[in-house]
Design brief:
The chain is an alpha/beta fold and 645 residues long. The protein has three domains: 291 residues, Alpha-Beta Barrel (TIM Barrel), CATH 3.20.20; 199 residues, Rossmann fold (3-Layer(aba) Sandwich), CATH 3.40.50.880; 45 residues, no CATH class. It has 17 helices and 24 strands. The chain binds beta-D-galactopyranose and zinc ion. Beta-D-galactopyranose (GAL) binds next to loops.
Length: 645
């Protein structure tokens, strides 16, 4: 378990390198990530390489027993490259090449770009082959899967379509191209979504395929780099760092061929009054991608700014607390972005641990405390987070919902967050995993908004329930087939048998709230109301308003040896929590009652030994009874307990 920093030697005068390395060593830094944006420093002109500066820094760290993560700097091609090979630039939907002055403007599929990347990556990897302190490689930086509409992607897409469907007839059928005279009569008519029309005017089946193609292109590009690196570094773990954004590649595919997952973790410094703000969701999500421990490549260190007006500064306790929170959820390394705030460049106000003054202050002192604490946590080496509750995610649904917003305020990831919040409230570990992952070992599977069909997921959920598992399905499930077309059967179509109910009609209620009653208590739903008719299911909750007052809102059905819930609305926290508690009881999973709001409890364990983390993810102190003991937690404080299993 290691704490580290992101360091940009190319931003600083050489005279600072040694003293920076000394300070890091003194503070207990174990890992330093470098070079992800330094292509022009390493290849100032085509074919002219200079690694001397990086060699010097790598050696300074080696002398101090500090390991490094080297990055391929390919998200920032040098300007000479764009000038000479403008064809590598990403092309927007407006058909224009992106202006190269920022970062990340390249098309992953451009052959010339691939060729230049290959030459550079081979040079760099070869150069560092004998370095003694490389802990890992990071490929590129925060790759995204936004639409590129260049000629290469255009051609790549129609080939992709041809490989997938074989004949034009099959494509026309899959896309329902009879609508608006959209039938293709030649492959040459298949284009990227170029044009000024809003995306919602396009055929969603076609668009989902374009998004899949872009996501696969991104994953393919990362895999291409990984294969190159492996030729030189067969035993060094390789990853790429990712974040949650609008154009996420499918993480399950992105990381499939990589050794471990890494994530950039920037919890908010302005605590919202309501909403699911805990970054525990993202941490559990990343852990679930490979169902394995992960690294944080960038961790909140100072006031975020630049892309927006500056946010409030990092409150006392956050540096240490958010670092420990990541470890508690399965991180094995937490690297802080960044060691020192830049004094130049676009990001000068995205603060690091040390301010522009270069005087280590409050935040740095807290970072040192984090290093010390984690140093005493060596006993946790090899521990993992185990969970009996799984939450399913499918990127195809995420894409399809983004391409066709269902109702105001309805977002797919929030459907997942709602149930993550609900189960976390009871102090149980939650795994967020691919909808196609193996469900063996889980007792409860929550599958919100299973929107775009995956045959495998449908089959596995049926098997899981019939063998005795508890499944919780929610509204907007079974809506689309694999092509993102609507299914001509009563909702929830593929899940109607297991839920024992059908949806007669639905009401897209936007941000309106709707009252529901369950076991004599009132709860709130929002965004969506399915008007349900039960076909064998037991009614647990009914709507209290609208023309469907009295009709079922939540049902429970015996299916095989298991139980299947259907929630016809988007529950606000009280409803989701009530359902979480009910399923935990049914599954016989022990949970914690009365945890104060925003107190998070998770565990990591290995044979016979369990570590329990109690974290106050809030700006006010908490005093409460925990396992018979009175405990007090300052804002963002974590306490670790241990017990024999
Ligand atoms: C990340 C990115 C970093 C830096 C940071 C703060 O998304 O990887 O390079 O830009 O955000 O803005
Ligand atoms: Zn392209």
């Amino acid at each position: 378990m290691k704490v580290g920093v992101d360091y940009y030697p190319e931003h600083w005068d050489r005279s600072l390198w040694e003293q920076d390395a000394d300070l890091m060593k003194k503070s207990g830094v174990k890992l330093v990530r470098m070079a992800e944006f330094a292509w022009s420093k390493m290849e100032p002109r085509e074919g002219v390489y200079d690694f001397t500066w990086l060699d010097e820094v790598v050696a300074l760290f080696a002398e101090r027993g500090i390991e490094v993560i080297l990055c391929t700097p390919t998200s920032c091609p040098p300007l000479w490259l764009y000038e000479k090979y403008p064809e590598v630039l990403l092309t927007g939907r407006d058909g224009r090449k992106q202006e190269p002055a920022i970062r990340g403007h390249r098309c992953y599929n451009a052959p010339k770009y691939r060729e230049l990347v290959e030459t550079f990556v081979r040079k760099m990897a070869e150069h560092y082959q004998n370095a003694v302190n490389i802990a890992a490689w990071q490929i590129d930086n925060e790759v995204e899967a936004g639409f590129c509409c260049c000629d290469v992607c255009a051609e790549g897409f129609w080939e992709w379509v041809r490989n997938k469907y074989g004949t034009l007839e099959a494509v026309n059928q899959a896309y329902h191209n009879e609508v608006w005279s959209g039938s293709y009569s030649a492959w040459s008519q298949i284009h990227p979504p170029l044009g000024s029309f809003p995306i919602t005017q396009y055929n969603p089946a076609y668009l989902l395929d374009y998004q899949r193609f872009m996501s696969e292109s991104t994953a393919g590009y990362v895999e291409f780099q990984a294969e190159l690196l492996r030729e030189y570094f067969p035993d060094t773990p390789i990853t790429t760092n990712t974040w949650f954004c609008e154009s996420m590649p499918d993480f399950y595919k992105l990381f499939d061929k990589l050794d471990f997952c890494s994530y950039d973790n920037y919890p908010t410094t302005r605590l919202p009054e309501e909403g699911y703000y805990s970054h525990a969701f993202h941490l559990d999500f990343i852990r679930g991608v490979k169902q394995r421990n992960f690294w944080i490549m960038e961790q909140l260190s100072g006031t975020p700014g630049c892309w927006m007006p500056m946010a409030p500064t990092v409150r006392p306790g956050m540096i240490k607390g958010y670092g420990l929170q990541a470890f508690a959820h399965g991180a094995d390394a937490v690297i802080h972005f960044r060691f020192r705030s830049a004094t130049g460049g676009a990001e000068m106000f995205w603060h690091g641990l040390i301010d522009h003054s270069n005087v280590p202050g409050r935040r740095y002192a807290e970072f040192e405390e984090l290093c010390r604490t984690v140093d005493t946590w060596k006993d946790m080496e090899g521990t993992v987070v185990r969970s009996r509750v799984a939450l399913l995610c499918g990127f195809e649904s995420e894409y399809a919902f983004r391409l066709q917003l269902q109702t105001a305020g309805f977002y797919y990831m929030e459907q997942l967050q709602a149930y993550h919040d609900a189960f976390s409230h009871y102090g149980v570990n939650v795994d967020i995993i691919s909808q196609e992952a193996d469900l063996e070992g889980y007792d409860i599977v929550v599958a919100p908004a299973m929107y775009v069909r995956s045959q495998k997921a449908v089959r596995q959920l049926h098997d899981f329930a019939s063998r005795g598992g508890i499944v919780l399905l929610t509204t907007r499930s079974g809506v689309k087939d694999e092509h993102n077309n609507c299914i001509m059967r009563p909702l929830p179509t593929d899940y109607a048998d297991m839920t024992g109910c059908v949806v007669e009609e639905y009401d897209a209620t936007g941000t309106d709230k709707i009252m529901i009653t369950m076991d004599g208590e009132d709860y709130m739903g929002t965004h969506w109301c399915d008007v349900i008719r039960t076909e064998g299911a037991e009614i647990l909750a009914v709507y209290k308003e609208n023309f469907y007052a009295g009709r079922p809102a939540v049902t429970q059905n015996a299916y095989g040896k298991g139980i299947v819930y259907y929630v016809g609305t988007v529950g606000l926290p009280a409803l989701c929590r009530r359902l979480a508690e009910r399923t935990l009881q049914q599954a016989g999973i022990s949970y914690i009652m009365d945890l104060p709001e925003r107190v998070e409890v998770t565990t990591r364990d290995k044979e016979g030994r369990q570590f329990i983390f109690v974290f106050n993810n809030d700006g006010t102190a908490k005093n409460f009874l925990f396992e018979g003991e009175q405990i007090e937690l300052d804002p963002f404080e974590m306490k670790r307990f241990e017990k024999a299993l």
